[in-house]
Amino acid sequence: MKKGVMRPGHIQIRVLDIDEALKHYRDLLGLLEMDRDEQGRVYLKGWTEVDKFSVVLREADSAGMDFVAYKCVDEATVDKLREELIAYGCQIQDIPAGELKDCGRRVRFDSPSGHQFEIFATKKQTGKWGLNNVNPEAWPRNLTGMKATRFDHCLLYGPNINDTIDLLRSLLGFDLAEQVVDDKGTRLAGFLTVGMKAHDVAFIEHPEPGKLHHVSFYLDTWEDVLRAADLISMTDTSLDIGPTRHGLTHGKTIYFFDPSGNRSEVFAGGDYHYPDHEPVTWLADQLGKAIFYHDRVLNDRFLTVLT
Fold first, then answer.
1. What positions does the domain VOC occupy (predicted)?
2. Which of 111, 225, 271, 285 could be joined to 164 by an S-S link, Cβ 3.0–4.6 Å?
3. Among this protein's residues, is 246 annotated catalytic?
């Protein structure tokens, strides 16, 4: 079943003003600024992540996501999957080592939903921030903001999501952990995982291709989510909804916007998934409860504001 894809690797986010974006991702979310490059891109990570970076910010004229990448166990796996992606009919772009700072070669490919994905195997490792691998303390003392632990997942909107889901399942070894179906059995949303997490990427059917709904970062506890809500108010950050709980994945969550209009999420908890688990199914007529378990009412802004 598994194809040698381990976990999310990095996501490149377009922002309108890099300095304003850093106030959000570095100072508010608490991601750690690790580097910058000649293009002006900024590299960040959560404090528990061992690779040098997981988030890349690029200043651009429009907000959204350039691509999201998944890390493979080795370079041989990248070669094998590259050939399978070509045979599947994907358009391939070979990105040389060093195009992203301290990252090895990447293979970028398109998808029926209009999103760009990457696979890679090599990236410089800097270890967990402020902790040793021998006798580590519980947590670093110099964290700021929401103290985000890691880039966890992204939710993507686009057409033909079932074809993209089939691509990631059949070639990269993702499992379908959860889904939303209508009364005819048509899948409207799918939540995919490559490990034990509730999801590593999710999709919702939408007519416009290549859209980003949110980028999500993991916190340890519900108390951390409530503290994040306080920080959102303290900084007059634009709030979308929360704190609340999802029915889908059962994560405890809050959503808010960066200065460019990209939606962020921080959450805690959530379900786990093993390959022998059947997908959890929510029916479309219960979508309000599936998304916002407490209110049980859909938020139009949550469903329609995309970048």
1. 7-122, 150-269
2. 111
3. yes
Phi–psi pair at 268, nearest 5 degrees: -135, 160
158 and 295, same domain (yes or no): yes
Helix (H, G, I), strand (E, B) or coil at 127: coil
Residue ranges making up the domain that contains 169: 151-304
Q: What is the per-residue pLDDT across 261-283, written as a single tens digit (0 to 9) for each?
A: 999 999 998 888 988 999 888 88
Which residues touch 67 (CB under 8 Å, ≥6 apart)? 11, 12, 108, 115, 116, 117, 118
Cα end-to-end distance, the chain, whole Å: 33
Q: What angle do CA 46, 52, 56 make, to 5 degrees?
A: 70
Q: Is 255 a catalytic residue?
A: yes
**Given 43, 70, 218, 255, the catalytic residue:** 255
Which one of the listed residues 70, 218, 265, 273 is annotated catalytic? 265
Residues 192 and 96 in one domain: no
Whether residues 111 and 181 fall in one domain: no
Residue 32's CATH number: 3.10.180.10
CB–CB of 184/138 below 8 Å?
no
Tokens of residue 167, six digits: 């691509």
Residue 213 annotated to the active site: no
Q: Are residues 280 and 178 in the same domain?
A: yes
Q: What strand order describes the sheet that includes 251-257?
A: 239-245, 251-257, 263-269, 211-218, 150-158, 201-205, 187-193, 175-181, 280-283
Set 115, 206, 214, 273: catalytic member: 214
- Say if residue 295 is in the same domain as residue 165: yes
Q: What is the pTM of this model?
A: 0.95
Q: CB–CB of 200/8 below 8 Å?
A: yes
206 is catalytic: no
pLDDT of 89-107, one tens digit each? 999 999 999 999 999 999 9
